[in-house]
Amino acid sequence: MPAVLEHPATLLESAPETPAAFPAWFAERQRAAWQRFLETPAPKRGDETWRFSSYKQMDFAGFSARSLVSSASQLVARSISLEEVAAKFVFANDQLIHSDAKLPEGVICLPLAEALVSHGDLVKEYFMKRDTRLGSAKWTALHEANLRNGLFVFVPANVEVAGTIEVFHWLEGQDTAIFPHTLVITGANAKVRVVDYFQSANDSDAGLAIAVNDLNAGPGSKLDYIAIQAFNEKTKVIQVNETGVAKDATAIGFILNTGAVWARNESLSRLEGEGSRSDMLSVSIPAREQEYDQRTFQHHVSPGAYSDLLYKNSLYDESRTIFSGLIFVDEGAHRTDAYQTCRNLFMSDEAEANSMPGLEINADDVKCSHGSTSSQISEDEIFYLRARGVDPVRARQLIARGFSVEVIERLGDEKVEEMVLRFLDDKFAHIAGGGA
Amino acid sequence: MSYDASSTIDAETQEAIDIDRTKGDFSFPERHKFDAGRGLTERTIDYISDVKGEPQWIRDFRHKALKVFREKPMPTNWATKDLDNIDFDIIRYYLSDGEKPKRSWEDVPEDVLRTFERLGIPEQERAFLAGVEAQYDSEAAYSNMKEELTKQGVIFVNSTEGLKNHEEIFRPWFGKVIPTGDNKFSALNSAVFSGGSFIYIPKGVKLKQPLQAYFRINSENFGQFERTLIIADEGAEVMYMEGCTAPKFETSTLHSAVVELVALKGAKIQYVTVQNWSSNVFNLVTKRGLAMEDAEVRWIDCNIGSRLTMKYPGVIMKGERARGEVISIALANSGQHQDTGAKMIHAANNTTSNVVSKSISVGEGRATYRGQVHIPKHLKGCKNNTECDALLINTRSRTDTYPAITVKGNQHATQHEASVSQVSEDMLFYMQQRGLSEGAAMSLAVNGFINDLVREFPMEYSVELKRLIDLEMEGSVG
């Protein structure tokens, strides 16, 4: 493993150094990315991709990309996972602190820092090859310039990874910034599931994470990706997810948001081949003053593709959500079948939900629809549960849980669904009075 | 007072005005009694105020608006780049020969004439719609109707007259629903407005007949920058119809109206627009209603034609149980962009709003729905329902939907649904099996798509509307 460089200067002050072990092309990309970061203007009021956003959240000046970790062994122990996994990687402040993998032959599953050295050409072919379109071009440039590690997964044609590949990203230390990166490539008819867990070492350190995923589903393959965002409520997160789905391939992208004070999710799925399918799913439970800003893009490049987006938010206390989604159908992308639904369930009279479900259709032979609703729990439902002896706080939790389960069930694996529900229940347990 | 009133057009200007020559040359010699000249300066405003003999407060209002217009940026973050093609310096902001625009039949383009024929519009009305100075034999009938309205205390005059003769009712609401600085085009209108209606319906008066019937013979129909203010006092009811189903043959390229509606406690205002602009017109209109306690404002809006229409009728529901509604149809043919939608601002408890919008994109036409629903904090029991459906006719047709819904608090219900579809092959095949041509089958399918909305229009409108859609669909298939 290459040595991890300390970069004690604050994040925005000077260009980070690329570790010497990394290939020259990568060092060049990092230099260019830093330049791009400097040249790209910060989001401003009036930018359509930042409508309703809280600009003040984007003051990242005080953060530094430290790699020092004081509690590595404890963090490894706290990396509670699914019972049986194909591989498990634990990173803390972008340093690998644990790895364990039992994978079929031919599968390359390595920390990105190693893959850059041993499989540089393959990484180069897929690494951040798409432009960020949903507003965070400046922040993904900062990510690219500061990138030190992450996970690289390559599953060759016709190989199925039976279990799940798990990646833990821990954040430790006041004002620490991390830049997790996950790059997944599946060959023809391959199959894999990757789970990223984002957590804080303690409740007191305010951190920053700018995470980017490149997911590339080859022809006929199946790629499931799950992100569990459960940072402490002082941390800020930008997560950018770019998925390309080839002919007859299926990709699932799921995001659970329970943590962070401010989280911006940008998810883009490109339907690149006929018969491709993308399921974009999310469950968010914001409480107190948490704000989740969700931007999605279903890009139908190829004819005859299917995409379905389902985002559900249960809003407690003074929390706030923004959902802005777009189904974009290219000229000639006929027989597109695309759906987009965002549902907001209000658990408090102080919460705020903003929805901007959008369509841009440039082909005529299509079936596209979107919907957005916001509503509250009906008193009848509460009454029904109370009549059966459930206390009101629990009753409201049960309803919010049931509301979310509809999305989680689409993951199609009981063990994984249970794991997601554990994080969900953990969140409910931390909401004062159950949000009643 | 002397201003450059020259109507000779130099080559460069000609080129700038001439956006779509294929639809007929709209520039022809005119001799206007009053002409503010080209471009917009303080002098233009003083000229308009002088000609109209306006009080000082209106002159000041116009001057202030001009400043705002100059400072305000174009709506650039989402609006189409086509807006950049408007050259504000070549526009003539005020033209009047005192009464009616003078044009002759020879100037009316072929397609406009054909539309008149096909809609079965009577000779007299055609003459009026084409802007030809027409001989009316209905002057007597008009006077009778006017008298009846006057007896009930209804005021129905053009806005200049409203300002002069009814300042005490006009002034308190003028510019209050749509402030000057609302957007660049409302500022422009505030600076140079002329024409449009001022209507006041007294307490409890419920008009049985829609008001436009009178308006058709009210000569001030033509205005690039008309300003309309309708006030329905407590419990009053009125339906107002603007425009007509026939093509509005305009010589100007920019139309920028401001329409303000005020429905006081328990009042009801329905505002019906069916517009079919000629295809060189930028139609950039700001329309908003204010609904007090138990009041209702309902916009029924149909947009056909124009080069670019940007129009989002809105309702501010300011009193408890107020209700707002927008029912709209847009049809975009090749070279046209219908950017329409609705804004629903809930500002009191138990207010409800409903938006139903249907669009059809034909050829290379583009239809856009842009919506806003806003329910701020500390309100209770607000409801919004929004439905938008888009129909695409050809492979290069285009449609977009961009709603924005903000809800604060848990005592409300909002839902938004939109769908995009095309006319199904099966349906067309089925109809063709029964002897309809492909075009006729397509027209039938399109009319079926908007049928439930067309029924919301007054009867004579809905018949004309259906014919108009048939006409637009002609030759659009394949």
UniProtKB/TrEMBL annotation, chain A:
Pfam families: SUFBD_core, SufBD_N
InterPro entries assigned: Fe-S_cluster_assembly_SufBD, SUF_FeS_clus_asmbl_SufBD_core, SUF_FeS_clus_asmbl_SufBD_sf, SUF_FeS_clus_asmbl_SufD, SufBD_N
Bilayer-spanning residue ranges: none
Ranges where the SUF system FeS cluster assembly SufBD N-terminal domain occurs: 31-167
Domain of life: Bacteria
SUF system FeS cluster assembly SufBD core domain boundaries: 171-403
Any GO BP annotation: iron-sulfur cluster assembly
Classification via NCBIfam families: sufD
Family the entry assigns: Belongs to the iron-sulfur cluster assembly SufBD family.
Name of the protein described by the UniProt record: Fe-S cluster assembly protein SufD
Provenance organism: Luteolibacter luteus
TrEMBL record, chain B:
Pfam families attached to this UniProt entry: SUFBD_core, SufBD_N
InterPro entries attached to this UniProt entry: Fe-S_cluster_assembly_SufBD (IPR055346), SUF_FeS_clus_asmbl_SufB (IPR010231), SUF_FeS_clus_asmbl_SufBD_core (IPR000825), SUF_FeS_clus_asmbl_SufBD_sf (IPR037284), SufBD_N (IPR045595)
Coiled coil spans: none
Biological process according to GO: iron-sulfur cluster assembly
Ranges for domain SUF system FeS cluster assembly SufBD core: 215-449
Domain annotation SUF system FeS cluster assembly SufBD N-terminal: ranges: 144-212
PANTHER family: FES CLUSTER ASSEMBLY PROTEIN SUF, UPF0051 PROTEIN ABCI8, CHLOROPLASTIC-RELATED
NCBIfam families for the chain: sufB (TIGR01980)
Sequence similarity: Belongs to the iron-sulfur cluster assembly SufBD family.
Name of the protein this chain belongs to: Fe-S cluster assembly protein SufB
Organism: Luteolibacter luteus
